[in-house]
Amino acid sequence: MRILVVEDDEILANMLKEGLIEEGYAVDVAYSGDDGFYMAESMPYDVIILDLMLPEMDGFTILEKLREKNIETPVLVLTAKDGIDDKVKGLDKGADDYITKPFEFSELLARIRALIRRASGNRSPIIKVKNIEINTASREVYKDGKRIPLSSKEYAILLYLVTNRGKVVSREELMEHIYDWEKSIESNVIDVYVNFLRKKLNKDLIETVRGVGYIIRKDE
Amino acid sequence: MNRSLRARLVFSFSILVLMVFFLFALFLYLGIERIVIQRVDETLFDKARYLSTLVKVEEGRISFTLSKIDIGEFIGPAAKSYFILRLDTGEILYKSPSLGNKEFPLNQIPGVGKVSYFTIYENGSKKRVVNYHFAKEDELFKDLSFFLPVKKYGFLLQVGRDLRLESDIIKRFIFYLITLAILALLFMALLISKMVELSLSSIKKISYKVKLISEKNLSERVDPERVDVELKELAIAINDTFDRLKMAFERQKEFISYVSHELRTPISGIKLITEIALRKKRSQEDYIRYLRDIEKSVNHLSRLVNSILLLSRMDMGREHLKMEELSLLDIIRDALHIISPIAEEKNIKIEYNIENVRFIGDKDAFLEIFVNILDNAIKYNKEKGWVKISNKGFEVVIEDSGIGIPEKDLPHVFERFYRAEASRSRKTGGTGLGLSIAYELIKRQHGDIKIESRVGEGTKVIIILPQ
To answer: Is the complex ipTM more than 0.85?
Structure first.
């Protein structure tokens, strides 16, 4: 899952990035409103964390312009103002959630997970496919009730395919959602991780659609 | 004690009305009394003239006969008229029986054919008396006047009348007058009270509105068209006051909202760093990196808090400036001493060409002003740029080769937390308060500060020292 952080305070932005990467997300950072809008518009992010007071374009404008362009990426507004007006305005302009500075990192993570779940149509943090069970809150994966340890990239690929289950996902799409801009990798890296997942979990869980990508089918 | 405007107005109006009424009544009373006395005098004179015709002198014998018609008037217990006939020497010839053993005093005797009047006050009753001085010739010698000089006799007729009836009328009149006065007074008091209430209704309207204008509803206003013309100015003055109050409140609210934003962001940073650092065991390098970031945030916070405190102290007028004679050169040198490490780090050359002047000001305040401006000149400069300080008397110019300030931002640079686009990124570590502080400090000391700038060419700050 790939997250865009739009925040002009460098220390805060960089620390958010570091913390989120540790949690297995791919993270890009924009320090100004203009950069933030450009990035949000050009990359398919799963969540955008948006500060409201920004140099150049402010947070409200970014939200408005994104929604105008029908970009439906969930937006979590990060605000330093605790006035009700700002929260209402943010939500009315198309924000999906907000959190007030200073915040607890664990709360931020929970809200990000909730936004991703909601976007994929899952209400429960536990997703079951065949004999595999994924707890998105604790980031744990069970096969027949037995815990299977996964690397963060394996987990990221599994999570993306599971949240989009029933839909064919191309290698490019997977890469866009799993890696940030700083890393350039070969697309066969994805194939390698998919093979690891098949070995660790279930041979038939992830199917290859030749020439297109991968799919996890919905349970009948 | 409650001071009631209405009570005071009613009281003073009543006193005024009472006084006017009293004076009016007094004049009326005196006027009526005068007219009544005049009428009495006329009848007394007529009577005296009539009585004088009854006096006859014949061969030196004086006779006086009252007709039967007159007797009823002068004789008997119910008689209200009196008279005394005297010789003009004062000797009493005849006294009307109604006088009993009393007599009228004999004061000045008027000239022959003339009258004089006087009033006697006698245990509660008043008598008006006329003195009529007349002469009679002996009837006998009248016919012989051609041969002999006629003998003349002088008489004084004093005719008096009781004024009891007139007094009664006047007394009754005064009673009516007083009753009327009391009624009029009550009526006036009521009327005045009503009038005061009417004239206070505008004030009531205003005070009702003013009550409505609380901290939460500062936009409520008194409509100057709906109060009396006399109070329009008051309404306008009240509105102006609330306008200013509202503006001050809004500025304060905006300032607090900025302060809260500016404080929350570095605090969030620190909180996030510590939370992430403590999530798991990390390498020593990571811990050092985290601590450095925390240090940066804390330094920024303390600069910010100091600036905010300084500004709010100035806002409340609690910043005491110690005025003394200062040397411009000393201040510039002290400022450069503080600022030069930052300049060296960014490879910026600072030149100064100062022709020293002495002025009155607060040393710390001026140091703060120059450090803030030099700090900006360095922060928003190009790599290997320059800063020049020069002066013409009391006008000090600080020029830089920096990035400049866009024209649209220039009018706002002294506003609190205003950042021009280029300086918005927190990379520069500014608080957004430096120029506001410099502005407030210099204005407070009756100096001035101006800023000129062109994007890409540099910025020129002109400080006018107080003289």
So the answer is: no
